[in-house]
């Protein structure tokens, strides 16, 4: 069985390397540290959107920086908005 | 850009640079070329103990395909622009996505993220450089393919091409990643597109199954080098075994490393244990548990042996913690499990099974890595010292107990002299060990930063004097590490560079290779 990616592009957001929305970015990237007792918990801290965006692009001490090629501006704005608003981002 | 302090490639005028950028914008689209300082910030985040400015890029370009890369190569040759390729750009502690030399243009291949083909019968994949392990994992899950890959610890955000090109390692039986790669596509400096192995032949369908092709096998020269830009890579996937039995064996004494290595080496060589065994020191486990350093150390300097013993007792961590797995059927694993139990009993080790590991963060991420499940659990290491400073010191050792003990003691002494802790592990290849030490320091503290640089320098030269070389190195020390391997090898590397990239366009200085 051979599966060529052409057949599934567009089907799976992450599979195609593009993010569906901020929820998916949080699940696939942020949560690996920030919901895993590695990085600080972000929820409930009412972090300003601009601050989150800056830390993601610049990195912060041990936190790596993320380039627009990894998380595009729109997806970053969405995830920053959701975190800032304290939206439920993981199954609780 | 008007700033007088703008970063430019060595020897390139501002006028030529601007012209070149205009031409590159026309190739990839304006939004995929960055030249201003603020948008370039993510390409200048490093953990190495040198100034950010030393590795500041002049620009970043994000092509989305081989044809665009070929055109960029033409422009780079015309203006003599140095181009530093990264795939997922997460070579953290080795240089991240920042260029090896100030002023180089980062060619960010992350947008090229197609999983081109997965052959479920032959268990192979063909991927582009921007594919992450998380993406590949999700892809296999979504398609219900019972196939595993091997990944490094930062798997969720890193990818197979960048990792393989730097000859990284992982934790399944396919953990020696270059060995389990099969076929590359490479854009050369002159824009030619080379497919290695069987891929060189028109209509070949054996590119991902037979690595060697005819004549010299070229794949190796595109790893830890700057002879080309890898745009596709074949990799082998492993059928998920019917029974997977990961385990940890804890040992109480630092000197136990001798008997651990001598007892496990035969099992590894005979492939009773098929994956890369990891032997992790207390201080690697502690931050990932997590244990706080400040609960055990006050004031400057390295942690004391007494404090390390206390951590072991307080948190149930071994002096050494051995991780490995059995991959097979229930029957074969039952048989081999008896061997593991016998070896642990004979060497005074305590086995922790998957069931017994529940609730332990450190064990969980390791067990996940041994089946290629992406996570970032190992980033816990950075909470140990804080301050975001890290470089990997990674010498190769024989898989012999006396050698590992000697290397461990040497490293610990030198680290201690500079006030740093021994945070190390041994990753067992078949006959070698990658001795990986995370030199953790507070990068916001200038004294620690200076000490970290001096410490790595002393480690490098003290180890080289004993005949121990690095398996891989950070970009700040590329030249010094290359020098430890002697002049003849370097001369051959230079001659290859001259032949393949006479204008010194691709990543000059990477692994010490430049014209
Ligand atoms: C906590 C932690 C744990 C780690 N554990 C491991 C581990 O278990 N195993 C391991 O191997 N590493 C480990 N690393 C190191 C590193 O993060 C990984 O090796 C990672 O996979 C490398 O980053 P990348 O895959 O994004 O490669 P990139 O950063 O994209 O590439 C690495 C280098 O290869 C060259 N290169 C990349 N792509 C190309 C290309 N297409 N053509 C030509 N040259 C290219 C570039 O010089 C680049 O700098 C660890 C790091 C951290 C922080």
TrEMBL record, chain B:
The cofactors named for this UniProt entry are: FAD
Superkingdom of the organism of origin: Bacteria
Is the keyword Cytoplasm in the record?
Answer: no
**What parts of the sequence cross the membrane?**
none
Q: Which UniProt keywords apply?
A: FAD, Flavoprotein, Oxidoreductase
Name the SUPFAM superfamilies for this protein.
Answer: FAD-binding/transporter-associated domain-like, FAD-linked oxidases, C-terminal domain
Database matches in InterPro entries: Cytok_DH_C_sf, FAD-bd_oxidored_4_C, FAD-bd_PCMH, FAD-bd_PCMH-like_sf, FAD-bd_PCMH_sub1, FAD-bd_PCMH_sub2, FAD-linked_Oxase-like_C, Oxid_FAD_bind_N
Question: Do you know which Gene3D superfamilies this protein is assigned to?
Answer: 3.30.465.10, FAD-linked oxidases, C-terminal domain, Uridine Diphospho-n-acetylenolpyruvylglucosamine Reductase, domain 2, Vanillyl-alcohol Oxidase, Chain A, domain 4
Q: Which PANTHER family match?
A: ARYL-ALCOHOL OXIDASE VANILLYL-ALCOHOL OXIDASE (AFU_ORTHOLOGUE AFUA_3G09500)-RELATED, D-LACTATE DEHYDROGENASE
Q: What name is this protein filed under?
A: FAD-binding protein
Annotated organism of origin: Aromatoleum bremense
């Amino acid at each position: 069985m051979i599966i060529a990616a052409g057949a599934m592009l567009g089907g799976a957001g992450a599979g195609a390397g593009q993010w569906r929305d901020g929820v998916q970015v949080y699940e696939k990237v942020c949560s690996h540290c920030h919901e895993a007792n590695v990085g600080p918990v972000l929820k409930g801290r009412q972090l300003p959107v601009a601050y989150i965006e800056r830390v993601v692009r610049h990195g912060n001490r041990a936190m790596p920086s993320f380039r627009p090629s990894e998380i595009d501006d729109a997806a970053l704005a969405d995830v920053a908005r959701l975190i800032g608003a304290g939206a439920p981002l993981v199954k609780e | 850009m008007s700033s007088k302090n703008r970063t430019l490639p060595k020897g390139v005028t501002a006028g030529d640079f601007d012209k070149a950028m205009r031409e590159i914008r026309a190739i990839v689209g304006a939004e995929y070329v960055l030249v201003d300082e603020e948008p370039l910030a993510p390409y200048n985040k490093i953990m190495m103990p040198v100034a950010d400015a030393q590795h500041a890029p002049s620009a970043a370009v994000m092509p989305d395909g081989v044809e665009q890369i070929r055109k960029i190569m033409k422009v780079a040759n015309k203006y003599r622009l140095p181009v530093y390729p990264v795939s997922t750009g997460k070579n953290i502690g080795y240089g991240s996505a920042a260029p090896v030399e100030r002023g180089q243009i980062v060619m960010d291949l992350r947008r090229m993220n197609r999983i081109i083909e997965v052959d479920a019968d032959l268990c192979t994949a063909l991927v582009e450089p921007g594919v992450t392990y998380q993406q590949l994992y999700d892809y296999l899950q979504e398609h219900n393919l019972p196939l595993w890959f091997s990944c490094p610890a930062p798997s969720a955000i890193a990818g197979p091409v960048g990792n393989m090109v730097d000859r990284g390692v992982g934790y399944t039986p396919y953990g020696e990643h270059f060995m389990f790669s099969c076929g590359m596509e490479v854009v050369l400096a002159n824009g030619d597109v080379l497919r290695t192995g069987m891929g060189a032949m028109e209509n070949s369908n054996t590119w991902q199954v037979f690595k060697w092709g005819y004549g010299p096998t070229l794949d190796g020269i595109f790893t830890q080098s700057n002879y080309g830009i890898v745009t596709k890579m074949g990799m082998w996937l492993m059928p998920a075994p019917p029974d997977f039995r990961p385990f940890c064996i804890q040992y109480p004494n630092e000197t136990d490393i001798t008997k651990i290595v001598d007892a496990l080496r035969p099992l590894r060589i005979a492939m009773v244990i098929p994956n890369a065994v990891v032997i992790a020191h207390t201080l690697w486990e502690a931050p990932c548990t997590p244990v706080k350093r400040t609960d055990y150390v006050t004031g400057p300097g390295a942690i004391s042996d007494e404090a390390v013993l206390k951590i072991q007792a307080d948190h149930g961590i071994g002096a050494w913690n051995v991780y490995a797995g059995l991959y097979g059927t229930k029957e074969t694993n039952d048989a081999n499990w008896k061997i593991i139990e016998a070896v642990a009993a004979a060497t005074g080790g305590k086995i922790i099974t998957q069931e017994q590991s529940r609730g332990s963060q450190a064990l969980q991420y390791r067990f996940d890595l041994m089946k290629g499940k992406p996570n970032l659990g190992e980033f816990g290491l950075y909470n140990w010292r804080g301050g975001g400073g890290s470089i990997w010191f990674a010498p190769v050792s024989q898989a012999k107990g006396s050698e590992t003990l000697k290397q461990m003691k040497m490293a610990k002494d030198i680290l201690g002299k500079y006030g740093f802790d021994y945070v190390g592990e041994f990753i067992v290849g078949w006959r070698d060990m990658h001795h990986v030490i995370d030199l953790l320091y507070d990068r916001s503290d200038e004294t620690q930063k200076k000490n970290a640089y001096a410490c790595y320098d002393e480690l490098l030269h003290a180890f080289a004097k004993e005949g121990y070389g690095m398996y891989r190195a950070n970009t700040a020390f590329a030249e010094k590490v290359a020098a430890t391997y002697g002049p003849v090898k370097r001369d051959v590397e230079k001659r290859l560079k001259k032949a393949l990239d006479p204008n010194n366009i691709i990543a000059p200085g990477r692994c010490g290779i430049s014209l």
